[in-house]
């Protein structure tokens, strides 16, 4: 199962809206087939592993990180494929919460005489598949909020200078984190101030995540990097119902996808935003700020993981804060997280925080 989990992670950021699943087929103590969910969500992991195993799958055991699907979609059910291949036993990490499966895959296997075991390395699998489960159960993607700040929590000087607070090693790690997510998201202020490309660079890969900009009025540079490359790498713009129709048409002409969201005061509703992204198929979103977007997600309890890069410098109170105003008056109302991991990245420190237990 450890091997199946490692294989499944190869699909992270590439197979949405489907889950990133891994499968290993073993016969007489020898691995005869391996597979993981392919780009775009198909073929599924079981199909890939069975193709590699061929006749060796008959009488074998299949280790799979998620309950095999039981419904007919664009491909036949994986549970039936395992049955037809003559697999003797299936060991699964976790069940599928998708209403089209939700135990039916296991039932199909057992009805056909296939032995089924579940719960092997379930916690690890649930962590890897959390975005898929969130979208299935709550209609929204998993959100990782990345902040790169000085020791005193600033992301730019008083003049707006922000490149670069962290070192090159930390920036390389950020690119690897982008690659494991379906989309990279920033607020309109960040897009205007930094003119970011939001692409994965320096890792020798051609896959790119979707680039999302949250801008209620679409007041974004039409000559910036995002506008110039919208036809090459997907750009989605989340905007309000009151956005200028001419700007909507212009960005659509540049190749961007426009997503209309409900407002929440002067900003877009964070919940409406994430619901819209979930409906579009996204399971994991990597948010890189700025401060206003970070604050709205935190205040709405929509941050599932916080990745904090801390650099060894101080910019003072006049610098731009990493997180905007949240209106917190009591400590009991503050967003709290539990430290999961710490890593030294060159001269910087990366701390990974999860939801408080």
UniProtKB/TrEMBL annotation:
This enzyme's EC code(s): 3.5.4.26, 1.1.1.193
One Pfam family, short name: RibD_C
Active site annotation, chain numbering: 46
InterPro entries in UniProt: APOBEC/CMP_deaminase_Zn-bd, CMP_dCMP_dom, Cytidine_deaminase-like, DHFR-like_dom_sf, Eubact_RibD, RibD_C, RibDG_C, Riboflavin_Biosynth_HTPR
Keyword set includes Transmembrane: no
Residue span(s) of domain CMP/dCMP-type deaminase: 1-117
Positions with a binding annotation for Zn(2+): 44, 69, 78
Function: Converts 2,5-diamino-6-(ribosylamino)-4(3h)-pyrimidinone 5'-phosphate into 5-amino-6-(ribosylamino)-2,4(1h,3h)-pyrimidinedione 5'-phosphate.
Family, per entry: In the C-terminal section; belongs to the HTP reductase family.
Protein name: Riboflavin biosynthesis protein RibD
